[in-house]
Amino acid sequence: MTGAASGIGLALSARFARAGAGVVMADVEGDALHHRAAELTAQGAQVTAVTADLTDPDAVERLADTAFDLLGDIDVVCNNAGVLGPVGQPLWEVPLERMRQVFEVNHWAHVLVARAFVPRLLERGRPAHLIHTASMSAFVVGAGSAAYAASKHADLAVARSLRADLRGTGVRVSVLCPGRVDTPMVQGLTAPRGAGGDTSVSAEDVAGLVWEALGSDRFYLFSNSDAPLRLRDQFDDVWRHVSLPPPSPEEELWPAPKATTVTMKR
């Protein structure tokens, strides 16, 4: 369980632990992670906290080694680590280093976790389920959200590719696409224009949705009730452009340039 120190990752860890599953919780925020793991342990949960920078390939490989050593076999991998990054700024104003940091966590860390865990899952030949946490921002993009939305689009593509790669095996893939969730990551945040939905759910609601989908062939997991309307608006816009006729030769696509006179002095 990555990104397990708070939010959806913590709620997933608690939901699995309550069902009696052994859980390895991973996060870069070591103090918060161990505190939450201790709380769950005090409630009788079987959890192990592993501080790990998931943008480091070696750290991810060590995490996979630790998880398999502790649990023996793994049934579910929740690829959940994520950051919000800069919001409210147009693309040309977002510092490139900040944008790269968002991609490191939201995209590349998910790639590294999949590359570390999937071969081991296939080798064992047991049924397993890989959950990728993307976002409604993988479909619906508003102003001032370029870094986050682009990283979530990339993660959706990775999940879709993994689904195709793993077809016919015992490893199933789902992509979790929550809208606004009441987590520390979004507390106090005003969503940029067009980027947020009209509903909010709890992290526990999202964890319950994931739990109910385990072992099924459900690929897209949408948590918020306004998801159908938001998706329809997006795909209606796509379809409108698909069905538009090509411009006629007589149509003036650009304003005619104004004649200019340049006088050169000697």
From TrEMBL:
One protein family per Pfam: adh_short
Keywords (A to Z) from UniProt: Oxidoreductase
One term of GO molecular function: oxidoreductase activity
Transmembrane segments: none
SMART domains per UniProt: PKS_KR
Documented EC number(s): 1.1.1.340
Homology family: Belongs to the short-chain dehydrogenases/reductases (SDR) family.
Name of the protein described by the UniProt record: 1-deoxy-11-beta-hydroxypentalenate dehydrogenase
The organism of origin for this protein: Streptomyces milbemycinicus
Underlying gene: ptlF
